[in-house]
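[Discussion] Sanity-checking designs against the backbone

I'm trying to build intuition for which residues belong where. Below is a structure token string of 430 positions. I'd appreciate it if someone posts a full sequence so I can compare it with mine line by line.
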């Protein structure tokens, strides 16, 4: 780096990798929902960071590209890596029998009876039981397999919640699994403590609330196991008052609040998110329009999850258009969990566009930069100089193909921190 440079170019940083001649680069650099489309563009990477983006001339003027590795992106699209800001990635077993039974029986009691005959429990408590029965290695292996699928579909940053343990020991193990996933995968895994995902069957409500606040939160904080804390505030789950107590304690311990809000009722969860200035407010099926305005005002990012609503056949779809019109910043996330086994943000985007009237541009922005906002991250989610080189290259000529090719995977390559970590470009027989 310090070698004498007779051409006088020594001030230019040296590129390690150059992506050249991309048909389209989606920079997602500006205000919400603008994809910032560049055509026939180059991107130069230096180490983990994006060094320059733009025309060949602009990039070569800014960065010394001689000797850099080259990826030819002719006929292809480059986008920021997806940021999946709401997942329940770590859990034991599956609920495939329950999901399959629901396809032909819409009455939950009938599904429960049908499965009980086969000796199978249903619902989240079935997952709590299966999760508690898993060893640390089993939890890690099953979550790692899902995470690999997410990475192959273009996701480079993931938020992962606890919440299927509902005991101090088990919740800590789930958060430790998040840490192990982050260390063993190229994907960055941010961790959220969601002990308030439900109430365990083996403890009284008040006792569990005390356990959350006086035992779990201090121990999670002391071990540095979570960036965020979350609660499920809804009819039948935590009240707004209980949610506030939990989130205030978590914030004092250093965890920023997120809220599962208004998914199945409106009991003031979204108001609480606006009032507390939560990092994100997630679900929002029953959120009144006036509260959407307050959330926009407070800068709380709305996380919407079309795959979850699809998987549960939600009776009241969220209103993405109203949220956008009220000025909210939105993120799209998979909500992968045993009730919604969705690994692909591409699938989520296709649903967001067709079922929720989002444009392809809005969907791309919300699945990348929007996700970064929902995690308070400012170093990723756009293709601009100085950002992390978390990128995906799609084997399609224009970006709208990502919402058009239903149920597929347009990803050719994924780069994480400047390194190619997925390469699907060499097709079978090619
Ligand atoms: Zn969730």
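Best answer:
Here's mine. Compare freely.
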């Amino acid at each position: 780096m310090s070698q004498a440079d007779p051409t006088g170019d020594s001030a230019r940083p040296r590129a390690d990798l150059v992506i050249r001649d991309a048909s389209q680069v989606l920079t997602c650099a500006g205000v919400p929902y603008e994809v910032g489309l560049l055509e026939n563009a180059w991107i130069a990477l230096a180490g983990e960071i994006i060094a320059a983006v733009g025309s060949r001339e602009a990039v070569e003027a800014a960065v010394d590209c001689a000797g850099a590795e080259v990826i030819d992106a002719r006929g292809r699209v480059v986008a920021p890596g997806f940021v999946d800001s709401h997942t329940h990635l770590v859990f034991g077993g599956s609920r495939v029998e329950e999901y399959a039974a629901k396809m032909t029986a819409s009455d939950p009691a009938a599904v429960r009876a049908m499965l009980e005959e086969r000796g199978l429990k249903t619902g989240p408590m079935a997952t709590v039981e299966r999760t508690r029965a898993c060893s640390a290695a089993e939890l890690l292996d099953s979550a790692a397999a899902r995470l690999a699928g997410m990475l192959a579909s273009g996701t480079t940053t993931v938020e992962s919640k606890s919440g299927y343990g509902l005991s101090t020991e088990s919740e800590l193990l789930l958060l430790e699994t998040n840490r192990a996933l982050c260390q063993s995968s190229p994907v960055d895994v941010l961790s959220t403590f969601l002990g308030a995902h439900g109430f365990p069957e083996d403890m009284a409500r008040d006792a569990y609330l005390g356990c959350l606040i006086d035992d779990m939160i201090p121990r999670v904080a002391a071990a540095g196991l979570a960036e965020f804390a979350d609660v499920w505030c809804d009819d039948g789950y935590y009240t707004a008052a209980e949610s506030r107590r939990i989130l205030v304690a978590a914030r004092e311990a250093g965890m920023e609040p997120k809220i599962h809000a208004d998914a199945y009722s409106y009991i003031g969860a979204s108001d609480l998110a606006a009032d507390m200035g939560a990092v994100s407010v997630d679900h929002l099926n029953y959120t009144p329009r006036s509260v959407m305005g307050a959330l926009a005002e407070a800068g709380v990012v709305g996380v919407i999850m079309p795959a979850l609503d699809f998987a549960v056949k939600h009776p009241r779809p969220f209103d993405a258009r109203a949220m956008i019109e009220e000025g909210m910043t939105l993120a799209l996330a998979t909500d992968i969990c045993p009730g919604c086994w969705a690994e692909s943000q591409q699938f989520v985007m296709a649903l967001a566009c067709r079922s929720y009237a989002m444009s392809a541009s809005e969907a791309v922005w919300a699945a990348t930069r929007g996700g970064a906002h929902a995690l308070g991250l400012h170093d990723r989610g756009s293709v601009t100089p100085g950002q992390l080189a978390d990128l995906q290259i799609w084997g399609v000529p224009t970006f709208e193909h990502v919402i058009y090719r239903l149920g597929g995977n347009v990803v050719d390559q994924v780069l994480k921190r400047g390194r190619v970590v997925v390469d699907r470009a060499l097709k079978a027989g090619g």
